[in-house]
Amino acid sequence: MAGVYIHIPFCKQACHYCNFHFSTTFEKYRSELVATLAQEMKLKSELFKGKEVETIYFGGGTPSLLIEEEFMTIFNGLKESFNIGKVVEVTIEANPDDVTVENLAIWQSYGINRISLGVQSFFEDDLEQMNRSHSSEQAHNAIKRIKESGIDNYSVDFMFALPLLSNEQLEKNLQLAIDYKVPHISCYNLTIKEQTALMTLIKKGKIEDLSEEKSIQQFKIVMNRLGSNRYHQYEISNYALEGYQSMHNSSYWYQKPYLGIGPAAHSFYNSKRAFNISNNSEYIKLVGEGKDYFEVEELTEKEFFNEFVMTRLRTSKGLDRRDLEILFPKFVDAFKEKTSNYLRGGQLAFFGDEYRLTPEGKLMADYIASEFFEV
After folding, report:
1. What is the pTM for the complete model shown?
2. What is the pLDDT of residue 25?
């Protein structure tokens, strides 16, 4: 299986917590950038020659800002450059204020069959504090319109540990999604990133600093509430009813090949990672001139092992000892030695041939994974 990720770096306004690559002043070059996406697809078509693309993912930024003509350009590029005849999942990230009846019809006409909806919270105070472009009412309306459109595969994104979000409000957010029968829910812990408005506001004392204790409490609430309502936590931040796991995102956690198209997009293929330039005008210029617009990193055996451990431990299936023995025989003994403390401490459990994080282990997943890294 192969996947294609398309990065759309357009946003109406900057969310205070976001450190992804985006621009709020894109109107002057938007058509040129979209055309460049199709150009890049041609340049990368050889990498997936003979491979069937099964998933396509529009991320950003805010890809729900694309208009019909821009979708036409992008999908024509996809058809010309890749074998997409057997694509089974096409996802678009959408802001609630962009989910109109008209847009839903356009998305469906191009084969988009999954929506990742950035709700973050149903409480106005949270949305205003984080500078989201939508209101609570628009979030409710977006879910209702998606359900009415016939698209049954969709996800709602929430954030927890927001400065104003109480435990009771988090419970209410989750219950609303459960009541809507949302098939997939992603819950992310708010973190402070460098060079974001959130960090500046916290330093100035205008927003309360984040609390580690609150993060732990609210992560436990998320796991307990969703788990007791038949949502399977198939990855640390992702919960799905049966049959609604994200195929595209799952490919990242299992080291399956994917191509990233667009400024700042990443790719993984043939044990290599590629990173596109994070500058819109330079991206347009370099792709147009046929010059290098990305850097390639050949993963060493240690780096690939470290990624393998980090991503597999984030999943519900965990890390299979047999895979470890086949792929990384020289690191097996050291890995097994390091598991003993976490097995005794109850953060790690062994099921058949699989090492899996327990609920307590998930609270410190990144730290535990780093303890197994080869340096």
Report:
1. 0.95
2. 87
